[in-house]
Each structure stands twice: as C-alpha cells, then as structure tokens.
Design brief:
The protein has helices at about 1-10, 30-40, 60-75, 90-110, 120-130, 160-165, 185-200, 205-230, 240-245, 250-260, 270-280, 375-380, 385-390, and strands spanning about 20-25, 45-50, 75-80, 110-115, 145, 150, 235, 235-240, 285-290, 295-300, 300-305, 315, 320-325, 325-335, 345, 355-360, 365, 370-375, 390-395, 400-405, 405-410, 420-425. It is an alpha+beta fold and about 425 residues long.
C-alpha cells in the first residue's frame, strides 16, 4: 500500500516545499491518508481540515478526535461546523463541505487538497452516477487528480487501508451514518455490490481497469468539447444553428458543459440535456425550467436565466421598507455616516427618486476610484452567475448609485453630521 501511495506522489509531481490540505473526517480512510502524508511530507507544509456536519450526535466528538490527532502529529488544524438541517440532502452536505475545504486550501496556498477516496468508493461512485442518469461520463468515475483535488488512495482497496491501519495501530472513529440505508451510497455498498460480486468476484478490479480507459477517452472528449463550444456558444448564448452542425453526442457534451457552468454545483442529469435539445427543436420562442433556472429559446438563440419568481420587477424605493426578491431595503433620514457594505448615505434630495432594478449586462458604476463594470465587481466578489441576473442595483434616473453589499458610487456621502438619506439592506433568511 505504501508503494502505491508513493507512486501517486510521483504522478502528482509533489515537491517537499508544496503545501497540502488533508481532509480528515476521523474515519479509517482519512486517518490512514494522514499517516501516510505525515511520513512522506514536511509537517509544516500540511494542514488538517475537518468538517463538523452537526447532524450526528458523534459529530462533536469526531471533531475533538481529529483535533487531538493533529496535536499528536504536530500539524496545524482547522475545522468548521456546518449546522446542516436534519433533512439535508447528500448533495447539499457535499457542496458545503467542498466549499469550505476549497476555501481553506486557497487561504493556505495549497497545491493540493488531499482526499481519502479509495478504490471501493470509486465503484460506488460509478454505480451511483449511472443510477442517477448522469450521462456517459458516469463510467469515468473520480480522477486521481482533478484541479486542486488529489486522491492518492484511489487505486487502493478498503481492505488494504484497514490492514494498514491495524498494522500501524492507528486509531479512528466509526461513522454510524455509513450504515444508514436512507443514503443512496450506503444502499449501493451494502446491498447492490455484494450481489454484483456473486456475478464477478473481481468487480472492483474490473471497474478500475475500465475507468482508467474511460479517463483517456474523457481527456480527448474534453478537448473536442472545448473546440465545439467555441463555435456554438458566444457570450453565454447558445446558437441553435451552430448546435445543429455538431454530432449528436457532442451536442449533449456542449450543453452539459454549459448547464454545469451556469448551475454551479447542481447535478446535471441526462433528462436535463434532453429538455434543452427538445427546446432547440421547437419553432419560435419558448422556455423551460430546470429546477430554479429558466432556459429560454428566442428564435435562433437559447439563453440561460433564473426563474421569473426570483427575478423581481422594477421597484420604486419609497416608504420605510421595500422588498426586492430576497433583499429587504430600509430607508430613513439620518445624520450622515461612513458607508458600509450593508448601508449607504445619499443626499436627502434623492428621497422618492430612487429606483431598484435588477442588474443588466453592460451596467457600470462610477466610484471614487473610477468607473467599474458590474460584471467585474461580481467576478471579484465571486457572485455566482445564476445570482447576478436578479441582484438589485439602486438607480437615480439612469445612473447606478449603489450595488448593495458590493459597491457604492461617488455620490455616496461619507461626511458625518450631515442630514442625509440612509438606506440599509439585508437578505431575507429562508424559512426552513
């Protein structure tokens, strides 16, 4: 097992000065991964990251266990409690976990985020994706290297990991939720794979071999998809005429890529691709909805947007309180102060003349440091594309004076003791 691990290090081209964040849950897989890294990489260039989901009763003790483990190795430790809802989906938990781990990796300046996925996880992942209809990419499974993500145990079996832990007297915690058949992955591991082994006792080895071939094909198709995407998509708009010139499989690949980019971390299924392809075949203008997003065909173009329900209309900022989507605006006459992200002070003469509308492509704001494109402001603030379409801006006539939580124009007053119009904003909390 150690030999396989060192081979993964070589494939990663890892140097001793490079930093690595190690995701450690406390289970046997991540504990073994940590031990191997601790033996093969300088401790000062390692950081242990733990996610406390807050769902299981043992979550708090797991966090304490991992923190004690970090002290034992003399490696820095960071953790976060997610406080997920009891009914939180597997996808929701995964998305929040990865968001935290990637942020930690960026802040630490890490070359890699090391994860404890192993060969058995790979089989489960492939089957799970096939059952969900995730498309041909299902058979490719997880990659050993995928951007910052590094899975050095991916060619190592669970049995090998457990043997290593026992041989090295490693202590670890047992996650009771791994036995909960309400989770799809657990049902696959506990019910389906044992039955599959009756047909092929070496199913894991067979999967790994096929997945390796699939990755080679995937790399080729990725390059082809990028070429076709440049022809078909301009300014995030799909040209139906150009789409029609692509081979059938490539149409689906390009649309999957387009949807994935716009829908962020949400899973894209084969049925979603079929919906867009059907939309492309219709004449005239028509739209369809995929979850909370709209896909609209206008003659030869297909555009991506947010659902109408969450794209508010123009609102005149009058009265003490106005609501715009999830944003709540409050205004009052006040003694001027220093603007913050959540408030702004404007000349009193603006009262009753301000309008709230959603962001439009090409919008700009004149700040004290010069004119800025809102698109650049959104990009720098890492606002997801799906949220930009319904992000509010406060306008005086045709001039933007405030982008709530992000930027204020040079018209904003920042001198104290001057009577002015104070506008505050907060985001409405969703009810659970």
């Amino acid at each position: 097992m150690e030999k396989k691990f060192k081979e993964s290090i070589k494939r990663a081209g890892l140097c001793s000065f490079e930093k690595i964040v190690v995701a450690v849950s406390g289970g046997v897989d991540s504990v073994a991964l940590l031990d191997l890294l601790a033996k093969n990489h300088p401790h000062e260039n390692l950081l242990i990251a733990h996610v406390h989901h807050g769902i299981r009763k043992e979550s708090a003790s797991d966090a304490q266990f991992v923190e004690a483990l970090a002290k034992k190795y003399g490696i820095d430790f960071i953790s976060k409690e997610l406080n997920l809802r009891k009914k939180a989906s597997e996808e929701e938990a995964r998305n929040k976990r990865y968001a935290f781990l990637k942020k930690v990796s960026k802040d630490f300046g890490a070359t890699y985020l090391a994860l404890g996925h192993h060969a058995d996880d790979q089989v489960e992942t492939v089957l799970l994706k096939i059952f969900r209809g995730s498309g041909p990419a299902s058979i490719w499974g997880m990659k050993e290297h995928n951007g910052i993500l590094w899975r050095p145990l991916l060619e190592i079996s669970k049995d090998e990991i457990v043997k290593y832990a026992k041989a090295n007297r490693l202590k670890f915690v047992i996650d009771s939720s791994n036995q909960d058949v309400r989770y799809s992955r657990n049902r696959i591991r506990m019910n389906i794979i044992p039955e599959a082994k009756k047909i092929n006792p070496k199913i894991r080895e067979t999967f790994i071999r096929e997945i390796s071939l699939g990755h080679e094909l995937a790399d080729y198709l990725d390059q082809e998809t990028k070429k076709w995407r440049k022809k078909i998509i301009k300014n995030n708009i799909v040209s139906v005429t150009s789409l029609d010139t692509a081979p059938s499989y490539m149409k689906k690949n390009v649309l999957r890529s387009w949807l994935s980019e716009n829908m962020e971390r949400q899973n894209i299924y084969s049925k979603n691709i079929a919906e867009v392809l059907n939309l492309a075949k219709t004449s005239g203008s028509k739209k369809t909805e995929i979850g909370q997003f709209t896909i609209e065909k206008i003659y030869d173009k297909i555009k991506f947007g947010h659902t109408v329900a969450e794209s508010p209309k123009l609102v005149v900022l009058t009265g003490a309180r106005r609501k715009f989507g999830q944003f709540i605006f409050k205004q009052k006459v006040s003694v001027g102060g220093v603007p913050k992200k959540e408030n702004i002070y404007l000349p009193l003469a603006y009262r009753g003349k301000l309008i709230i509308r959603n962001w439009k492509q090409g919008d700009k704001i004149k700040t004290v440091s010069g004119t800025k494109k809102l698109q650049d402001i959104f990009t720098n603030a890492k606002v997801p594309k799906s949220k930009r379409a319904y992000w509010p801006v406060v306008v005086l006539k045709n001039e933007i004076v405030w982008v709530p939580l992000l930027s204020a124009s040079k018209r904003a007053i920042s001198i104290e003791n001057i009577k002015s119009l104070k506008i505050e904003v907060e985001i409405e909390k969703k009810r659970r």
